[in-house]
TrEMBL record:
Residues 339-448 form the Pyridine nucleotide-disulphide oxidoreductase dimerisation domain. SUPFAM superfamilies: FAD/NAD(P)-binding domain, FAD/NAD-linked reductases, dimerisation (C-terminal) domain. PANTHER family: MERCURIC REDUCTASE (PTHR43014:SF2). Keywords: FAD, Flavoprotein, NAD, Nucleotide-binding, Pyruvate. The keyword tRNA processing does not apply. InterPro entries: FAD/NAD-bd_sf, FAD/NAD-binding_dom, FAD/NAD-linked_Rdtase_dimer_sf, Pyr_nuc-diS_OxRdtase, Pyr_nucl-diS_OxRdtase_dimer. Its cofactor is FAD. It holds the Pfam family Pyr_redox_dim. NAD(+) binds at residues 177-184, 200, 264. This is NAD(P)/FAD-dependent oxidoreductase. It comes from Kribbella sandramycini.
Length: 452
């Protein structure tokens, strides 16, 4: 007999944890299913441990900038405190008891099982079955996409999970894929002395961002001693027990003690039973409407929806789902026109909304303005490590920003102002009247606006 509940949440990563906890706190009878770690990818293998690694790597780089600005400094990089901090402070050695307790305290019935839809409102979890009167929230995230390259399957390649777990570092590393995961981890390992080679199939790394961002990221990594191949594909991977050899379609080869595959993510819906809820199990993402509804009585949140694979997106969609399920009057509707993202390189590369190319492809009449951080007063003062730029993308017909990039020492923080402008459609002539404090990095926004 199916147990009667209000809501079943399948997958308790960032999105599912937020949705289930909030719904339970609102008084609903909520079951949360998670076979692995409550919290998902972000706290255990993603955002948090990777940003701890980045913090450490940036300290090394910043120490190396002391010479000539503040005296002399030497640093001997040591991975041990980073690996230890990831175990002690980020992941509790990959133990989620604290997260489980927090969720249960909010009133969620936690079941450590894989969930399978068995009908429009029913979910099987191990030997239990639940019938959800209000509905089901699918928050099952993604898994690494491993491309079908000859020889790759069966080799001991790393995914992000292995990279985050590393207790010792290899002498050399090949990184397949120059997206967010690839470039962030590349810079970390390079700054700790690993000889890193990046292989990216697209013409630039950070291929979906402005070309200026990819060029800056490449220059930055090369300054850290990284070898970057772009516009080339791996055709073959071999592992001889000690070393990987990757053959490229331009005839070159790359060698490394480890190989990190960071070629994107994919949904893993094969065993979810989506067809039982009237959804196509072969989809590459679960499409949702502005209420994040996927079907009658089914909501989907987070990476599984394919709308920007970010923790902030999962939280945002969870909030929309919670209000819709609770029937809140004037519930918020999902809109992604001001999607922010920050690649935590040094310099940080933040962006919001459309790139110039995307805006043109949408048929907008586009104007752009840009400024260079090193030529701003604050950039001049900062000196070593001051690389970066602001780029604004304007819909000239409406006179509003539709996209922007902010790269620099605090590029992700400066992005906040631009995200507000794109989100709220603040008129450009109003942005031009803002008093930008002197001498801040964000004052470079004012310089870029002068070009419009
Ligand atoms: C290295 C790395 C760095 C990142 N850095 C950032 C960053 O700095 N900022 C940022 O915003 N984002 C970052 N991300 C992305 C971020 O981690 C994801 O966007 C976020 O985790 C998505 O949350 P989610 O809830 O959709 O999915 P997930 O966190 O993937 O959680 C999904 C959960 O569902 C479970 N599940 C799957 N199938 C079932 C089933 N059938 N039944 C029950 N449970 C199931 C899984 O076990 C998993 O725990 C990073 C990702 C990586 C890999
Ligand atoms: N700072 C952040 O917010 C952050 C950090 C890390 C990850 N993430 C999220 O995680 C997601 C996954 O990250 P990711 O870096 O794996 O994916 P991605 O989609 O960002 O980048 C994958 C890259 O691999 C390349 N690629 C694919 N197949 C290839 C092949 N066979 N050979 C060479 N290159 C190939 C693609 O062209 C692409 O540039 C991102 O989309 C992002 O949303 C976010």
């Amino acid at each position: 007999m199916a147990e009667q509940v209000d809501v079943v949440v399948i997958g308790l990563g960032v999105g599912g944890e937020e949705a289930s906890g909030r719904l339970a706190e609102a008084g609903l009878n909520v079951v949360g299913l998670e076979p692995r770690l409550v919290g998902g990818e972000c706290p255990y293998y993603g955002c948090i441990p990777s940003k701890m690694m980045i913090r450490a790597a940036n300290l090394i780089a910043e120490t190396r900038r002391v010479d000539g600005l503040a005296g002399t400094a030497t640093i001997t990089p040591d991975w041990a405190p980073v690996a230890q901090r990831i175990r002690d402070e980020a992941t509790d050695n990959w133990n989620d008891q604290v997260a489980v307790d927090r969720l249960v305290k909010k009133g969620v019935t936690f079941v450590r099982e894989h969930g399978v839809l068995t009908g429009p409102r029913t979910v099987r979890a191990g030997d239990r079955e639940f019938e959800a009167s209000r509905g089901i929230v699918v928050a099952t995230g993604t898994v690494p996409f491993v491309p079908p390259i000859e020889g790759l399957a069966g080799t001991p390649f790393w995914t992000n999970q292995d990279a985050i777990r590393a207790e010792t570092l290899p002498a050399s590393l090949i990184v397949l894929g120059g997206g967010a995961i690839g470039v962030e981890l590349t810079q970390v390992f390079a700054r700790f002395g690993v000889a890193v080679t990046v292989i990216e199939g697209a013409e630039r790394i950070l291929a979906l961002e402005e070309p200026e961002s990819g060029d800056l990221a490449r220059a930055t990594l090369e300054k850290d001693g990284v070898t970057v191949h772009t516009g080339v594909h791996a055709t073959k991977v071999a592992h001889d027990g000690g070393e990987f050899t990757v053959t490229l379609d331009d005839g070159n080869t790359a060698q490394g003690e480890k190989l990190l595959v960071a070629t994107g993510r994919r949904v893993d819906l094969a065993r979810l039973g989506l067809d039982q809820a009237g959804l196509d199990p072969a989809v590459r993402r679960i499409e949702v409407d502005e209420h994040v509804r996927a079907a009658d009585g089914v909501w989907a949140v987070g990476d599984v929806t394919g709308v920007g694979a970010f923790t902030h997106t999962a939280m945002y969609q969870a909030n929309v789902a919670v209000h819709d399920i609770l029937g809140t009057p004037d519930a918020p509707l999902a809109s992604y026109h001001a999607m922010p993202r920050v690649t935590f390189l040094d310099p940080e590369i933040g962006a919001v909304g459309l790139t110039e190319k995307q805006a043109r492809e949408q048929g907008l009449k586009v104007a752009t303005g840009s400024s260079q951080i090193p030529y701003s007063s604050r950039g001049f003062i900062h000196k070593a490590g001051n690389e970066g730029f602001i780029k604004l993308v304007v819909d000239s017909d409406r006179g509003v920003l539709v996209g922007a990039t902010s790269a620099g020492p605090t590029g992700g923080e400066v992005l906040g102002a631009l995200a507000v402008a794109v989100h709220a459609g603040v008129p450009v002539n109003s942005l031009q009247q803002v008093i930008y404090a002197y001498p801040t990095f964000h004052r470079a926004i004012g310089d870029a606006l002068k070009q419009l």
